[in-house]
Amino acid sequence: MKLPSCAAALIAAVLLASLAGASRTSAAQAADVRALPSVNMEATVKAAQIDPRRPDDTLTPGAKASVLLVERALRDRRLLDAKWVDGYFGTTTVAAYAKYQKSLGLTGLDANGLPGKTSLTRLGADRFKVTNIIDPGTRVSTGGFVINTRTRSMLAEAQRLLGRDLELDQGSYNPGGDPTSAGTHDGGGVVDISVTGMNSATRTAVVRALRRAGFAAWVRSPRQGDWPWHIHAAAISDTSLSSQAQHQIGDYYLGLNGLTGRGPDDGPKVTIRTWEEYQRR
After folding, report:
1. pLDDT of 138-152, one tens digit each?
2. CA–CA separation, 273 vs 281, rounded Å?
């Protein structure tokens, strides 16, 4: 049946108004998202590694604004007392964030107190948007050891810088695999590299390349512990790090050697960068 011209015009007008209203709603929603403050995930994760290891309450440069937004969200969920909302991602904030992760049903490495992509995005719903996202990627096998794709990319770049291949002695996600590792390999981002056939200069060159690509790395000798010569490397800001590896990286930023005695760093000096910062250099 053909509609009268006036009825057809009325229906068309209603449809146009509906479409315009939907467009205005979408635009308003987009504007709301743009208006939200930003949490820089890279800066926040960096602070969560360094601040718990500091001897004082110095703030991690560039992280305060983002950390404050995270701490306020934790406070409003009654996971963090107001007195700890200070821009300092210390042990209390790490513990509060781990509780929040567990409240989401996350377990294990996903509840390690380091802000991950999923938990940070959910914490920020209607409060803040997350920028500079870090993603460790999926687990993969290389040389018979399990690592994640972010670590694999970092190792590949270190090898390119060196002009030689590296052989792993131990990979990541290896809880209890080597008791002398003190839990550092329980999570992601951590590898041990064989130094077979390397002289002192070559070992140092390997550590320098690993550091340039975003690892906290050191040559380990039998004098330091119950282990053979090897190179230990932990990927800075890998959000699946074990708590022990988090502490090593915080110590690396503070000029220490990553061992329990917290001695001075004995490796080559390079500008400390994460993998993400290295790629933007």
Report:
1. 999 998 999 999 999
2. 9
